[in-house]
Amino acid sequence: MSRLSTGIPGLDERLGGGLLPGTMTVLVGSSGIGKTQFGIQFAHAGLVQEKRRGVIFDMAARIDPQGHDAYARRIAGWTLRREESEKTLDYDTIFDQSVEWGDYFQALAKKGCRMTRRDVDFDTWHDWQAELSKHLDTTIAFFFTHFVRGVCRVVVDGIEPVRRQGESIQFELLEYVYHQILQKDPQWLARDLFRQFYRKNEAAIAANPYDRNKIGCLVLYTTSETSLDAMIEKPLDEGDLLAGANTIIYMGKIRDGVRFHRALYVSKHRGSVCPDEIMPYEIDDHGLRMSEFISS
Fold first, then answer.
1. Domain coordinates of the chain in residue numbers?
2. CA 240 to CA 32: how far, in whole Å?
């Protein structure tokens, strides 16, 4: 099965051809290090490789935006279309190829609120749980509709650092999305989506299959650590959900005398030979590229 290009000039060759489909890749780094640009380039690379761009699933609850729209326009000439999480589902549009669904979905509408059990009272935590449950149907519909149209790339952004992942509503949602949507058998996912309307739509479901093993998931995980050396020395705990990822890439700053540079390090890449080295990169209006691919 073909690997998924990262869309980063010079990086695929160092990853054995790209990222493995059917798996999760976690990109770890602080705010402003280039994670969102990386995600946009990965999603956009699907237009060449699979004839379909990927989709952006934004779990941020911060007041300040991640900048997806601006990055997509500048890097790829791509105008993101927002899919509303509050919409009433029209099952007739799921298989109708003439109906365009948005490629950007914001899962949590509450803004500027803490998202961990430790930091909120009982009522606020209950409100978060209700918010999550309310949007599960549209979340399933968003992914299923794109998958039956040939989308093979999912970028999950907006995950904020926490002391215990089990106390975070974002990690709870990420675990559900990855295991109960992306990795689930398409027939069973269709049952979750259509429920009492499954029999009515059974023929259309059978006529629009997709292969879950071709879908790659890139998770953009924000950490408070900025130093690449510190990330390498203190890796993610083995018990973390993210430690179950097939590939983990750290993005951070390295020091060269009195200057700092951006660089990345591939901590884990199962099923591939990858270099055990720190790889500098730069960011310009076209996004990320490995430093040796920057024109002088």
1. 12-293
2. 24
pLDDT, tens digit, 9 for 90 and up, residues 250-280:
999 998 888 899 999 999 998 887 778 999 9
Query: What's the chain's Rg over C-alpha atoms?
Result: 19
Q: Is the dihedral of CA 159, 163, 168, 174 positive or negative?
A: positive
d(CA 26, CA 267): 10
Could you tell me which residues come within 8 angstroms of residue 32 by beta carbon, excluding any fewer than 6 positions away?
none
Q: Which of 67, 66, 44 is CA-nearest to residue 55?
A: 44
Element (H, E) at 171: helix 169-177
According to DSSP, the β-strands at 259-269 and 279-284 are: antiparallel
Q: Classify burial at 295, counting beta carbons within 10 Å of its beta carbon; exposed 0-12, middle 13-18, buried 19 or more.
A: exposed
Q: Given its phi and psi angles, is residue 59 left (phi above 0), alpha (psi -120 to 50 degrees) or beta?
A: alpha
Q: In this structure, which CATH number among 3.80.10.10, 3.40.50.300, 3.40.50.1220, 3.40.50.170 belongs to the domain 12-293?
A: 3.40.50.300
C-alpha 53/C-alpha 153 separation (Å) is 7
Give bridge partners of residue 284 from the DSSP assignment.
287
Q: How far is it, in rounded angstroms, from Cα 73 to Cα 6?
A: 18
The token pair at 88 is 């009433």
CA distance 151 to 167: 31
Q: Which tens digit of pLDDT belongs to each residue from 121-132?
A: 556 656 656 666
Kind and range of the H or E element at 280?
strand 279-284
- d(C-alpha 79, C-alpha 56), whole Å: 12
